[in-house]
Structures are given as C-alpha cells and as structure tokens.
Amino acid sequence: MQRMIIALLVGVVIGLLAGGVGEDAAVAADKKPAAPKEIRAQSFTLVDAKGTPRGRLGVDDGGAFLVLWGPGRKPDAVLLSATQIGFGDQRGQPRVLLGREGAGAILKLSDANDRGGASLALVPSGSALTLSDAKGVQRVFLNVTKKGPRLRLLDARGKIIDSLPRGAK
After folding, report:
1. How far out from the chain centre does Cα 65 lie?
2. Is the peptide bond before 53 cis (omega within 30 degrees of 0)?
3. Domain ranges in the chain?
4. Is the pTM of this model over 0.70?
5. 141: nearest Cα among 169, 108, 102
6. Digitized pLDDT (tens) for each residue of the chain, 169 residues in all
7. What DSSP assignment string belongs to the chain?
8. Which among 149, 153, 154 is positioned nearest to 165, based on CA atoms?
9. Which of 67, 113, 65, 107 is nearest to 89 (CA)?
C-alpha cells in the first residue's frame, strides 16, 4: 500500500512539474526576444532567399559604404561615406554619380563605356558644365564665375576651336 501511495505521489509530482514546464515553454514561445540596442560589426551582407548576396553595408579604410547588387551581382547603387552616391547599369558600369567635394557638388552622367557623358560641378567660385564625346574627349565647356560666363568648343583632339568671350582659354 505504501508503494502505491508513493507511486501515486510521484506520478502527481511529475505531472505537475511536466504541466508547469510545458506551460512555461508555451508562454516563452509566445514572447518575442528583445531586440538588441546595438549591433557592432565591420560589415553586414544582405542575401536573398537563395543566399545570393544582394547588398553590403560596411566600413573600410576609405570610410563607410553601402552597395546594392542587381542580377549577376552587378552594382546597382553605391553610397560611399555619404559623400558620393552612384548608380550602375545592368552590366555594373557606373552611369550616374552624385557627390560632394569640399564645399562643392558634382553630378556626372556617363555612357556605357564610362567615357563620354556630361558633368555639372558647383563650387563656391562658380559652376561648370562639361560635355565629352564617346572617346572621353572634352568637347564643350561652359562655366560661370565672378568674372562672368565662358564657353569653349573643342575638336576631337581637345583643341579649342572657338570660345566666348573671344580669345578665352
């Protein structure tokens, strides 16, 4: 009889413990873990559902950067130390660059070979627009400074063929 009572008590205790543990586990599963206040690392890589890298946020000797990759791991967008942001084409070639240098700003538009294109620069002393041909040779230069506007037209070798005001270099 004593064995039956002990067995019954042991069974009740085990049942209570198991039920309590099960209840605690269910409650714990419903709780979401607290988000950390800070995560420190030198880089983070973003991957898609297949594990393919699609972006990276990191730091190197040049400062902080963010790169977003499109199909074929070609850069679609690049942000460098918050001073430049660039966008590439489907081959990863840089096509648009927007940035700042010192107290100035620049916008550069490039062709598929990163040679020809246009650039607009704004600096404290004035502004300039440059147009280049497909070989990367500057063909048109327009700038405005405190002295006034200046326009230069250049040939395929980069030699001035005309300018305004006349004789401006």
Report:
1. 6
2. no
3. 43-90, 93-169
4. no
5. 169
6. 444 434 444 444 344 445 555 555 555 556 788 888 888 899 999 998 988 899 999 988 878 889 888 877 778 888 887 688 888 887 878 889 899 877 889 999 998 888 889 999 998 889 999 999 999 999 999 999 988 999 999 999 999 999 998 766 6
7. -HHHHHHHHHHHHHHHHHHHHHHHHHHHHHSPPPPPS----SEEEEE-TTS-EEEEEEEETTEEEEEEE-GGG-EEEEEETTTEEEEE-TT--EEEEEEEETTEEEEEEE-TTSSSEEEEEEETTEEEEEEE-TTS-EEEEEEEETTEEEEEEE-TTS-EEEEESTT--
8. 149
9. 113
Burial of 141: CB neighbours in 10 Å, binned 0-12, 13-18, 19+? middle
Is the separation of the CB atoms in 132 and 145 below 8 Å? no
Tokens representing 117? 């294109």
Q: Which amino acid is at 46?
A: L
- What tokens were used for 81? 């130390």
Q: Tokens 């070989």 identify what position? A: 135
How many residues in the chain?
169
